[in-house]
Records
---
Amino acid sequence: MCRFWASLGTGLYDLDRKPRPVADTYRMLLEEFGQITIVPHGEMFETTSMPATLKIDV
Amino acid sequence: MAQDFLSIVKRALGDGGYAGDQHGGAGGTDGKGLPTGKPSNFMFATGIECSNPTIDHGRTRRDQLLECGHYQRWREDLRLTVDLGLKVLRYGLPIHVTWLGPQKYDWEFADLVLAEMQRLGIVPILDLCHFGVPDWIGNFQNPEFPLLFRGYCDAVAERYPWVRFYTPVNEIYVTARLSAKDGIWNEQAKDDRSYLTAIKHCAAASILGNQAIAERRPDCIIIQSESAEYTHEAHATVSDEIRLKNKQRFIPLDLLYAYPFDAEVDHWAADNGLTREQYDWFMAGEPPGYQIMGNDYYGRNEMILKPDGGMCPAEDVLGWYNITRAYYDRYRKPVMHTETNVADNDAAPTWLWKQWMNVLKMRRDNVPVLGFTWYRSLRSRS
């Protein structure tokens, strides 16, 4: 079975747009972790709106 | 009688809850609560499945947006995203509907959907090529595709200047493999030369498209969603074929991120049509903008080749953590878990927790993981 069809798995909602159990689980996860930052203390390193410039990995 | 410091402090300030401590100290917040959408907020996402490859040698297009009813119910689908508490949505514009020819576009559907996203405060990660190209381009063997695709990316970025997050070409490895090696989609070829050609064209298209986007949005954030792959082999001696396959999985990102080839891959690529001049073009440098490496993981991304030659899923032998860690150690890009789900409805909640544990472990091992995606929002009909 090709990966494509295998990847067509469980959505958060069915085709009638009714939530599936995983939607409740995702909601629970969001309520527990939803306000964590991208990296620890990420407020200090908020995603900048400055243009990208550096081409080196430092 | 001598007093200890603590009794003095408590007498003066009370037993905890001290002023100032709410700013990241003991009185600070712990990350609970629905996502805020602030620039520092970890990106929790879902996606609307937007695959649109052709099968039957181009005669049939599998348009997942059509098959899940999204063209009719797009407003409701966006609302569901918001109602769940999500702020970020991987969203694929239907390339075959929007891009009608060189510099010829039909923006009607895209305009409606993106305006609604803006109204709802959804941050889209715009997916511009998801397993298919318009009929007039043909398939991924068309050498004109990369340059033409640059024009499409430029047009999208010009029309929607508020959009910052893009995936120019989704899952290059899977696109090329299923189109030109496994013979399932689009050109449906089954040979190495076609396979490498599709990889080259997709990687070049992504780079050129990325440049066009950066021209419009110098602060663009490119999330290159790529399948996290590995094949295990249940043989005492690893075969040349599987050893090479486990190296070939890196080729798309090697070309995209200008990471020099392994010698064995270099020979294979040269044998299958990658010229020195082409290789040098890819190795000139990385694409512009802020690059995030997206790693997609389904249980079948890992396979086991059995002694009898058959294949079976290896689900979670390595898992997202170990496979993605190998990609991270190679490319050193911030990471996002950009796709996961599982076919079994009852198993899905546990699978979600397992993927999230992978993400947390990766973060605790000091790899910057910027986001997580349960992909997709809607069950597919197929």
---
Amino acid sequence: MTAVASHNITFLSHSDQGGRGDGVQVMVNKASPISATAFPTALP
Amino acid sequence: MIDVRDAKNPKTVNFLPCPPNTRAHHLQTATHEKFGDLLLAVNGPSVWTMQVSQEAYFSGTSGDALAGQKFSSGLRVYDLAKPEAPREIAFLPLGGLGPHRIWYVGERYAYVSVHLPEFSDHILVIVDMKEPTKPEVAGKFWLPGMNKAAGETPTWPQGKRYALHHGLVAGNLIYSAWRDGGLAIVDVGDPAKPKMVSYRNWDPPFGGGTHSPLPLPDRDLLVVADEANFADCSKGLRYIWVFDVREPSNPVSIATLPVPDDADYCKKGGNFGPHNLWENRPGAFVSSRYIFATMHNAGVRVYDIKNPFQPREAGYFVPPNPARMFDPRPNRPQVIQSADCFVDKNGVMYVTDNNAGLYILQFEGR
């Protein structure tokens, strides 16, 4: 992954959130981040 | 739920669906002293799924924009004993459009922006979390003119949206952002009787959309972001403000953070300007010097306010545009719209986007 522009921040990784990439907010609880998300149309 | 024990190799492990037409667009995780780790999540209208126009949502009252729609409205509480499999332990129905944002760090009370049916838009609702399986409303606060059931009428111009977006608590004070209604500092020492300490609104001449507060109590400073909730700079620029709050009854704006100028973001497409601030949550990266802000199509930015009168940019990362679109609304530009940033104690940044998933980054600027 190449950033369009960056300074003093480096890329570690990216997740497509299991094919639900519509994230609004993210929390990290100890080891696991939980991203608030989801359109009902994206439900399994 | 995404396992990031190895930040260079995140793994999606689970997904919690919402009821139809409902979105859990804000949540909080915190450790309750008796019950351990909890997840609090809002349930409110999925305005994108329901094709509510951005213009209609951010102008006037959201209740009007969503009249007749059906969705779940309330606050859900989950036990996070197994973080990969949250277990729902409570649902607090709230009616109306329900909750929008929460501030909860594991103490007695959660501070929630909620639209209740008797009010014109979102107000402050203080929720007692003493018994997480039975959350209860402990108090309310609203701006004059919002309580329709009590016969109040709007004190603001038509087309403006006076609604609590989000509030953060430091000590006995909640620093609350009321969209076009500006900033209110409110004493919540008695949750049943919140009291206004001070109020500021810089709209007009600046454009409103007051969105994200960040109190820095060790320096008696407050940072406040106005949301750029429109595309192509069509309503001008929105700013992130630095206030001196040594005297909470008289907050004074002393600076704004630099506007990104490494590209012509007004011509890039999509929204340009502030969205969320990193909120210095306990146990994570806590700093009263470095301010992390998501800036929609300008990615995520870090600002150094060592000198609060002369803030400077200390870092930025602009991800590439999303490979695909999840936003179901028609004619949305396929550009990055960085939305939120969580920063852990090591400066690892977790950055979301409306369409591009989760970026995990490392801040190197300290």
